[in-house]
Amino acid sequence: MDRISDGRREATEIRLRAYPPDILREEDFELHRAPVPRSLEAGELLLANSWLSLDASARLRMRESDSPYMPRITLGGPISGFALGRVLSSRRSGFAEGDLVLHSSGWRTHAVIRADETGWRGPHRIVEEPGMSEAAYLTALGPAGLTAYVGMVKLLDPRPGDVIFVSAAGGGIGSLAVQLAKIAGARVVASAGSAEKRDLVLGLGADVALDRRVPDLSAALRTAAPGGIHGYFDCVGGPELEAAIDNARPGARIVMCGTVSNYDTQSGSLPRNLFAIVAKELSVKGYLTRSYAELLPTVQAEMAKLVRDGRLRDRVTILKGIDSVPRAFVSLFRGEHVGKLLIQL
Amino acid sequence: MDRISDGRREATEIRLRAYPPDILREEDFELHRAPVPRSLEAGELLLANSWLSLDASARLRMRESDSPYMPRITLGGPISGFALGRVLSSRRSGFAEGDLVLHSSGWRTHAVIRADETGWRGPHRIVEEPGMSEAAYLTALGPAGLTAYVGMVKLLDPRPGDVIFVSAAGGGIGSLAVQLAKIAGARVVASAGSAEKRDLVLGLGADVALDRRVPDLSAALRTAAPGGIHGYFDCVGGPELEAAIDNARPGARIVMCGTVSNYDTQSGSLPRNLFAIVAKELSVKGYLTRSYAELLPTVQAEMAKLVRDGRLRDRVTILKGIDSVPRAFVSLFRGEHVGKLLIQL
Asked: CB contact, 8 Å: A125 with chain B?
């Protein structure tokens, strides 16, 4: 084992205290402090995290019973989530001290990446594009960007003039999806939960920004898109999905990258209008970003070009310090933040 | 106008008395008798109906407000639905006295087909295949057969060894879908609502027949298909769709030709497990048979061959006389009949 000499002595991680039955509270988390690991096994990496991504999907793993799709988070251990870190010490080939790394050992200040951790969840050594901020590798050039790209460009693939509906458009993925749809020449109707987010979304080029909290979102969408929508980019499920199905043109496509409206409670408003899937011959396609992992380098290069050309903007809310994580994560489900929610350490 | 001489003097049609708010009752219908039409305009056909098809989807048109997908049925007028009739008199080219015709002026003993009625809803002159019963043109060789063929063969397209789930398998479409899946070499798990239907379905080759009324259909499907299902043929929605989503293998396909579980009330149990569409990257595809109308002759020929070879069997419940229609249609939603429900006039 190699000895590591590191300026900082203490590492902090966020742990889940108990499995919250429904609405998540700040008290469900606790901070755990321990010395920074001082030695590595062969194949391991020690990272000092600089940015953490807080993603709603982590809520799905904070449950007593294993989901059929995702292993639950272990109580008394660290929580996983995408993060960027710099290599403090490496016993893994291809990674050297100082490298910027995208990985999934977030929710902590320091991470030891085990030898058996590979694939989509990383570690990925970042080839830094000129002119990009470090944080961009968690947003437009990172998992959020890949999710938006796959859903909007690869699966929905709008034609110029198509009307595309994007929900959660003020969020990290939705705000990118809106811009990708505009770049493709679509007319974009977006929905978001606050006036601030709607302003943001209009600033990003959306043609209409709807308030997702109106009593009849379907009617609002009908007014915004009287001829119906050609496609819908869904991170939300719930009333937005119902409104999209109501307003879909025959043959419309719906891509689903999440159903955040029911992550907390696993229930909620679900589409009453299933028959429209038949009657309008809709296609609904769910996808996981990790299945498109091989596209990450291509998408990073394409997104970097769009950012440099001023055609795509990253919208982020940045909170500072590991101590801010519990409150920030809980607030994610109240839709309080604009853009992608990042923690700077 | 031509004068028509017809043996029968009286025509009977079924009318809707009022729009039923939820559960349909026999009293919602009335019989209306009138003289058989005695003259035709240019382009018109007079038919004596011999067989009527009763299809659950007609329920969707028995509503006060127009559905966005289907015009409502007019009170005080005839109800439409597929039927077979013989030409009594023709002022339309391509149709001669005595021809067998598939059309959508069912729910009545005699039909005048107007000059502007064309396309999927007919009239279609039937080229009678050797050895087929007349009724087969409303079942395996008719709209039901085309629906089953498109959903199972064209859209699901199972590979040998795939596990395919078929709901409403004791019904007119499901019973054909089960057989088409077996012919493709799939392992078929079927669900149906009565012991009689399950016996029928097993007799048609299904490997397992589940009782759709068990408290936990999803668990029953898991036991029947421990490795999950590759595809699901859905006419039902509701708990069956939820069970299919629960038990879908990653990348599984779901085709939807109906959501009969909520035709009566437009509500009911709907999938709680939407996130699985994302997590398992499922594809859900709704379709309308009429969009595949051009396949009808091909499918008729293929189905006729399968029937003649003894590889496909038509299952029907036949009731007699126009007076039996109201009770028969209402009973459709209680799942009382095995196979396709036909009325012989």
From this structure: no
Please check the confidence at residue B92 and state whether its pLDDT lies above 80: yes
Provide the pLDDT confidence category of residue B20 given band limits of 50, 70 and 90. confident
Report, as ranges of residue numbers, the positions in chain A whose pLDDT lies below 50. Answer: 1-5, 267-270
Contacts of residue B55 in chain A, CB cutoff 8 Å? Answer: none
Per-residue model confidence (pLDDT) at position A8: 58
> Per the structure block, which two tokens stand in for A344?
């700077």
How confident is the model over B6-33, as a mean pLDDT?
Answer: 87
Does B291 sit within 8 Å of A275, measured CB to CB? no
Q: How far is CA A191 from the centre of its chain?
A: 17
Of A70, A274, A286, the CB nearest to B282: A286
User: Cis omega before residue B123 (within 30°)?
Assistant: yes
Whether B281 and A284 lie within 8 Å, measured CB to CB: no
Full set of structural domains in chain B with CATH: 2-134+316-344 (3.90.180.10), 143-289 (3.40.50.720)
Report strand pairing: B45-53 vs B110-113: antiparallel
Interface test with B, best of A57, A282, A284, A289 (most B CBs within 10 A): A284
Of residues A25, A312, A317, A313, the one with CA closest to residue A196: A317
Alpha helices in B168-273 (DSSP H): 174-183, 195-203, 217-224, 238-247
Closest in A241, A259, A281 to B286, CB measured: A281
Task: Say if A193 is an interface residue toward chain B (CB within 8 Å).
Answer: no
